[in-house]
Write a sequence for this structure.
């Protein structure tokens, strides 16, 4: 099987539970992750999740280009919602937040791109 | 894969992969039906054609335009009586419908002359209108009429007019969605960038895309944008003007509502002009609030968005909650055409308390099902391109209290005593905005607890007709099992808005915000 198509490594129970809470918020409330092509989805996942991580960790966020600003707007709202719904997140050390967000990123890449059943994702045109 | 096979479709085995049940622990890698494929022979689809998607969905909501179909009269069927994309110019675009009325003789001898004559006659009949769209249909496509050549000829003879040609015949795709795609691409290729905006009035300029002003939705959203000091350069296409839509390349942000019908133009504008695309939800208190906040954040004016959220929530929340208390756990089949399956799936559950037991889409792609399935709760039955028998079977097994769908399947539902609301054209819209969302809740309440509907459930040919009780009012039906403290909660109330909630918006004045940048000539403003 193609390496990129396998589900990321299983996580311990606590991490898996936390990741599921964040994933549930995204899948129920966000739209940014559903662009219509694989390459678009990768750009969206990378842009918005990395900015969300930076916001959660109190790090500076690049808002230089219009696309950056657009990703940042989605990320700000999402980071706030994460903190509101998951109080444990505010007490988490930065490196753990980063590890969790990284696992979330990998998981979303899998369910939305590499493991997706959506046959249109690989269409060469819009 | 948790596919669902309908009893009635066992004779069409290909249908099995078009329905799934979202089970416990399922995600999109295990539960996703096929979608956007040619309708399987033998299944009587409820879809529209690609011409319909281009003209009746996207083209015609443009308000200052003569919309002319080049084909038989019947293709123009969908107009005043089925479509409700109103406009603030007395609904010119749906009040008048134009077709060249092609006949057999035109099929044999060609219809280009007929087309030209029709174009000239239409401009003559409406001398104030200088813009036109022409739509190819199956008949004119099959005989090979060159619509572009005729349009160019007329534009040369009448330099004051501008004409857009949409070559999206009925057979040009599996469903109306093929037409959405074609007209998006045709518009960006032919018209975007051919005109500069008359005036840039704000530092914050957007295109509002994939919004069709159903019963005034666009006007409700415009009110919020104006209160935020955001200039809407164009609306694609509800209540939008032809010339504004030629200026789309000058916006700073594309705010995308119905991604199903209009993501293509946003994607192209992003690639060609670097304008980012922000997908939003205009329905529901929280999703709409977050959407306005994101637009505010993009421009650095989130405080203006927050002020609107606070004001609107305080005004309308007690009314939404009155309905929520009465709609708790009512079962809904959410069966719209495309985008509403995901715009509504989670938020009617969260904010109105109803349970979505099934989602379907007539013309959605797998991407729409991804969104819909993600947003609905476990156990929901998701169906792609259902046929009428499958719809009936699903209603019989799921026993919904109401379905949200189009008027044709809605009439079928009524026959088996299931009330329906018109998901495409609405009942008493607008349904966008905070007030609109309460109007939607009121429509659901009125449909489920209709005393007349209650009477209709009795079949006088076989049921015993109770003679010992009087007529049950809505409140007797809806409040029967409510605890006293909810029934008499003084903080909650029914809808108190006006019958026509658009009238005041049309004459409203807005605050003038100081600009950061000096007003620049429009072309150099971005
Ligand atoms: S399928 Fe063809 S003939 Fe029928 S309405 Fe559509 S364009 Fe007209």
């Amino acid at each position: 099987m193609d390496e990129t198509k396998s589900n990321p490594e299983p996580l311990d129970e606590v991490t898996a539970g936390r990741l599921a809470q964040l994933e549930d918020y995204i899948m129920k409330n966000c739209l940014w992750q559903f662009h219509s092509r694989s390459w678009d989805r990768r750009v969206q996942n990378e842009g918005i999740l990395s900015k969300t991580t930076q916001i959660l960790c109190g790090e500076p966020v690049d808002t230089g280009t219009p696309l950056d600003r657009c990703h940042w707007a989605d990320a700000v709202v999402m980071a706030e919602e994460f903190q509101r719904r998951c109080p444990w997140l505010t007490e988490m050390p930065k490196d753990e937040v980063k590890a969790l967000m990284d696992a979330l990123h990998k998981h979303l890449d899998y369910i939305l791109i590499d493991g997706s059943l959506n046959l249109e994702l690989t269409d060469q045109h819009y | 894969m948790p596919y669902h096979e309908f009893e009635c479709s066992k004779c069409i085995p290909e249908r099995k992969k078009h329905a799934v049940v979202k089970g416990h622990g399922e995600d999109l890698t295990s539960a996703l039906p096929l979608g956007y494929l040619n309708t399987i022979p033998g299944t009587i689809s409820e879809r529209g054609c690609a011409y319909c998607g281009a003209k009746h969905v996207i083209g015609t909501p443009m308000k200052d335009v003569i919309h002319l179909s080049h084909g038989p009269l019947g293709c123009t069927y969908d107009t005043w009586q089925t479509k409700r994309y109103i406009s603030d110019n007395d609904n010119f675009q749906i009040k008048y419908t134009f077709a060249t009325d092609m006949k057999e003789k035109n099929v044999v001898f060609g219809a280009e002359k007929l087309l030209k004559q029709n174009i000239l006659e239409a401009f003559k009949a409406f001398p104030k209108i200088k813009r036109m769209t022409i739509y190819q249909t199956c008949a004119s496509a099959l005989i090979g009429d060159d619509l572009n050549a005729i349009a160019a000829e007329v534009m040369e003879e009448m330099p004051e007019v501008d004409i857009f040609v949409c070559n999206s015949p009925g057979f040009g795709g599996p469903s109306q969605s093929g037409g959405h795609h074609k007209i998006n691409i045709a518009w960006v290729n032919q018209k975007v960038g051919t005109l500069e905006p008359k005036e840039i009035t704000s530092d914050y300029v957007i295109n509002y895309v994939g919004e069709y002003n159903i019963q005034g939705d666009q006007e409700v959203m415009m009110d919020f944008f104006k209160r935020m000091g955001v200039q809407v350069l164009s609306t694609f296409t509800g209540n939008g003007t032809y010339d504004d839509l030629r200026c789309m390349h000058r916006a700073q942000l594309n705010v995308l509502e119905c991604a199903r019908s209009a993501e293509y133009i946003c994607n192209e504008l992003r690639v060609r002009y670097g304008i980012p695309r922000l997908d939003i939800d205009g329905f529901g208190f929280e999703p709409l609030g977050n959407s306005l906040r994101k637009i505010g954040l993009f421009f650095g004016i989130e405080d203006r968005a927050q002020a609107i959220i606070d004001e609107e929530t305080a005004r309308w929340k007690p009314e939404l909650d009155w309905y929520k208390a009465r709609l708790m756990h009512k079962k809904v089949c959410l069966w719209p055409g495309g985008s509403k399956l995901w715009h509504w799936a989670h938020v009617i559950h969260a904010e109105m308390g109803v349970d979505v037991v099934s989602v379907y889409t007539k013309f959605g792609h797998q991407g729409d099902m991804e969104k819909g399935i993600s947003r609905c709760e476990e156990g929901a039955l998701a169906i792609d391109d259902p046929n009428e028998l499958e719809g009936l079977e699903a209603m019989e097994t799921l026993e919904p209290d109401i379905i949200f769908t189009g008027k044709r399947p809605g009439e079928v539902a009524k026959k088996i005593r299931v009330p329906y609301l018109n998901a495409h054209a609405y009942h008493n819209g607008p349904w966008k905005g905070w007030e609109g969302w309460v109007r939607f809740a009121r429509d659901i309440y009125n449909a489920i607890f209709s005393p007349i509907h209650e009477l209709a459930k009795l079949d006088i040919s076989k049921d015993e007709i109770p003679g010992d009780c009087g007529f049950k009012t809505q409140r007797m039906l809806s409040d029967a099992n409510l605890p006293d403290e909810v029934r008499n909660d003084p903080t909650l109330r029914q809808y108190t808005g006006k019958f026509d909630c658009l009238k005041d918006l049309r004459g409203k004045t807005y605050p003038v915000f100081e600009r950061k940048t000096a007003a620049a000539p429009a072309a150099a403003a971005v």
About this structure: Helices of chain A lie at 13-29, 38-56, 66-85, 88-91, 94-114. Residues B 49, 51-52, 71, 75, 137-138, 169-170 surround iron/sulfur cluster (CB under 6 Å). The CA atoms of residues 16 and 28 of chain A lie 18 Å apart.
